[in-house]
Amino acid sequence: MGLEEKLPSGVLLTSVEKLVNWTRKSSLWPATFGLACCAIEMMASGAGRYDLARFGMEVFRASPRQADLMIVAGRVSQKMAPVLRQIYDQMPEPRWVLAMGVCASSGGMFNNYAIVQGVDHVVPVDMYLPGCPPRPEMLTDAILKLHYKIQHEPLGAKRAAQQAAARADGTAPDLHLEMPSSVRFDPEKRRAYEAAAAAGRTGQFASEQRGGHALLLPGTGAPR
Amino acid sequence: MTDGFRRGAFGVTGSGDTSGFGGLVRVEPGGAVALHSTDRPYGGWFDEVTDALIDAVGEATWAAAVPRVLVDRGEITYFVVREHLLTLVQALRDDEALRFELCSSVSAVDYLDSGGPAANAGRPRFHVVHHLTSMTYRRRIRLEVAVTAEDPHVPSVTGVYPTADWHEREVWDMFGVVFDGHPALTRILMPDDWDGHPQRKDYPLGGVPVEYVGAQIPPPDERRSYR
Amino acid sequence: MTTTSDPYAGSRQTTEGRVYTVTGGDWDQTFGTDLHEEERLVVNMGPQHPSTHGVLRLVLDLEGETVTKARVVIGYLHTGIEKTTEYRTWTQGTTLVTRMDYLAPLFNETAYCLAVEKLLGIAVPQRAQTIRVLVMELNRIASHLVGLATFGMEMGALTGMTNGFRERELVLDVLEEITGLRMNHAYVRPGGLAQDLPAGVEVRIRELLTVMPERIAAMHRLLTGQPIWQRRLKDVGYLDVTGCLALGVTGPVLRSAGLPWDLRKVEPYCGYETYDFEVPTADTADAWGRYLVRVAEIGESLKIIGQAVDRLEPGPVMVEDKKIAWPAQLSLGADGMGNSLDHVRHIMGQSMEALIHHFKLVTEGFRVPAGQVYQAIESPRGELGYHVVSDGGTRPFRVHVRDPSFVNLQATAAMSEGGMIADVIAAIASIDPVMGGVDR
Prior knowledge:
Radius of gyration of chain B: 21 Å
Strand content of chain B: 15-25%
Number of helices of chain B: 5
Distance between the termini of chain B: 10 Å
Helix content of chain B: 10-25%
Largest interface: B-C, 56 and 59 residues
Number of strands of chain C: 12
Helix content of chain C: 40-55%
Oligomer: heterotrimer
Order of helices and strands of chain C: EEHEEEHHHHHEEHHHHHHEEHHEEEHHHH
């Protein structure tokens, strides 16, 4: 409703903030803003195998007035840009934008007259997701990272200023946006990750998690 | 490249190319567009279609309408004078021996600077290309109408092939060729208030420099090219 | 400062240039206050609408619920791909064209490569041809499944959508194993293929061949016999053969009107004349017929895939000419990326010529003799034609794509005018346009 933004700063606010952010992130309703190839992968994310419903967001809203997340899935042409901005303006606050795929993020391989070189020229973007197109797992991961970001968002102008100051003098906690979602939801792994992050060795940590292998392929059970 | 000849792979003069790979001098008088005409017989069904077309439109019209015929890579191209285009497509669609029922596509090619200025002097720049398909005989032919940038007018074939509607709008949008007689020749792909015709060769690609951490590379049309 | 009175796009000259303000809804000004016009309602659908099959915009004139005029506005996904190919090498063109009709990427690649090969005057090895047929037919199944899934979604049969996407994942698993990607594969290259088939993929394909018929039967059980589905589709979006030919419509829409026009049969390429399959047709010329044709085509594609797997013989998948063939075959390295260590060893330690060829091919690309060709293939949506012009250089001089979605979409007005507004959705869904192909 936006009322929570008007609360005074203080000890109470920290708890309210957590609650409000938790409610915000737990039922994020995306607007159907499918444009190109990524839209197909976005639809695949909503369908059976990848099942975004697990994260409380299977309800893609056709009306921007009922949505709070715009997944810009695909290349934005010069002709589409005003439409995109209008849809963004129709979404109620608080709202977030996820630029899905390289075209939406930076123009990608279409560096030419027809395509807007990154949707951040038109609307503010909260999360960039590379890939051409990104796999549904990547979209899920980007959305989980966005959830994490929302959970730690400051509430109110005062609190935002406090956090900005803390970030400036280095006393603010790291949000670990790089943390893989599989690690984030496992308390033990999460502690190990935080220790690794403090030592600046998250890359090695990820490799150790896979038993030293390059990658884990699905379906086989064993790393290859 | 000023004389229409290509020398070497990197465009160097003299003997700069030592690889022996692209060192051959290539002679391409017309650049992309061939300037010659194929002699009869063309071979295959090409002669049959051409004779039927001459029968349908009459010898005199044929001589005035089609100055050149080119057979290349198993495809036949009729270069058509624009004043006679409608007569020809009407005959091609309706004549029993021709029956080109389907207009597969209408597009254009901008031959600006192809083959160098020497080959380019006085040559019409835009070639409007019609691909026609005969479903009865399973044949395909190509018609080309060449026009200059100063007078880019071609008669619209929408009266004969309604499917050409969007194709011609696209050619207008992308190349600025005007199709006389088209019911509503407006932009189709670009926004209505767009300036210029993007697929013309003298219209820039419009890319922006790509930023990296500590480096920048120019847009694709300004990078080093090996033409 | 001057102002114009254009009701749609007013403009004002300012010191910084001309500023346009695009508005809608000023219908009274535009159409006056004619008494007969009072019944008339103009509805704008799209470009952002869940049922217009992408970023398609429709302007519908309504009298009550009857559509009297349907105008289609496209271009919201214009990407400038045709012009961008003129600034890339012939091989890089594959990567660009695959993103046009993004539900049929392998068809775009194959049509483009066949055109380039026609210009070059080369023929690809038999194994490459067979694999091209194999991946194209897999792609056709995936494309039709998405077509049916979105068809279901737009008609309100949401289970059709989730089922269609579930089945598509089975096909994509196989395609991913072959090409490395789920979509936009860039797998077919001028001269052959980027990679040979991975070991053991034949087993996966045969598994798919055993699973899919059951899934198609489930699709029939879910939708075909359903009375609501039938009533929504039958006699909707009617377009007969004459109308199809006048409007240039090809593919399942033309075949639903009864004409068995399939380029795989009438103008065979990639050796399609040696495969045993049928061209499904319907005689209803409506959305129902198009639905049935698409489901039947999935079955025919399965037949072709089975035959293609049976006839796979070991052999090269790229032409022998080292001046055209991309030199390296990638393998999965320890870092998870594609590597070609054998090739690096070869060019750095053994063969100076190989190094030269590699350097020339990667930096400059190969040259294609001057001329022009038109190459058409049967994509899931109809005749996909590539008109490719070369000036003898290392880059295409012009690539024009005759995309079936672009042409077929013109039939929207003919199919939906005079019908109900709800049937417009059924008509468009039955055309199954892909806006990436329409706008390119």
